[in-house]
Write a structure and sequence with these properties.
216 residues; alpha/beta; six-stranded mixed sheet; 6 strands
Length: 216
């Protein structure tokens, strides 16, 4: 297949429509943002360092549950969060959710969540679904577990991620979660992944930083 400019435009427009943009606003020509405005979190409570040794902090992306409501494979983010929390609770630990507004890099998100966590263990999750389990004293890219194949994630996977994060807190032996690999997922979802990352990044607000978050 020959990749032309028209084909790229067609794919981009189709992805934007799938993400919830109207047919009349799918063109990005002359625009510098996917979403016209950045959500203000000025009145939200700043996230505090936890003291509960059983706590696992989940750090969600800047567009999570607002500008983006579903993962790249169309799983509702409400259900993703519900399953992450359920997995943590099933292992006897306590989840807390924060929204990270100073980075859209999932490894740094997870590390910031871990540094806020009373246990030192945190989970970072981008709105498109990519997830990392991290520990507060590790380097950003030296995480405990990375789940990069967001298009292949299921709710069961997210539940198991919550369980594993809780097991790290307890110091139990953790069996890494098997990750399905599909070499075709990258080309298939590349345009959508790029647009979702842009939509997330443009919502960053470093001056606000990290806030307590539990969207109802």
């Amino acid at each position: 297949m020959q990749i032309s400019e028209d084909l790229i435009k067609q794919i981009t427009n189709a992805v934007l429509q799938e993400m919830g943009q109207s047919a009349n606003s799918t063109s990005l020509v002359g625009k510098d943002r996917i979403n016209p405005k950045r959500t203000s979190y000025a009145n939200y409570k700043k996230a505090a360092k936890g003291t509960n040794p059983k706590e696992v902090v989940i750090g969600v992306g800047a567009a999570f549950q607002r500008e983006i409501k579903r993962t790249i494979c169309n799983i509702p983010l409400d259900e993703v969060l519900e399953n992450l929390k359920a997995g943590i609770e099933e292992e006897g630990m306590v989840p807390r959710v924060v929204k990270i507004l100073d980075t859209s890099d999932v490894c740094f998100m997870a590390l910031e969540a871990a540094k806020l966590s009373g246990s030192g263990i945190g989970i970072g999750i981008q709105s498109k679904g990519t997830t990392v389990i991290h520990q507060k004293d590790l380097y950003p890219l030296s995480n405990l577990e990375l789940f990069p194949q967001a298009p292949l994630m299921t709710l069961d996977t997210y539940r198991k991620i919550g369980q594993n994060a809780a097991k790290y807190v307890k110091g139990e032996q953790v069996i890494p979660i098997p990750c399905t690999n599909d070499p075709m997922s990258r080309p298939k979802y590349q345009v959508k992944a790029a647009l979702m990352h842009i939509a997330e990044t443009e919502q960053l607000d470093p001056e606000i930083g990290i806030i307590e978050w539990e969207e109802k």
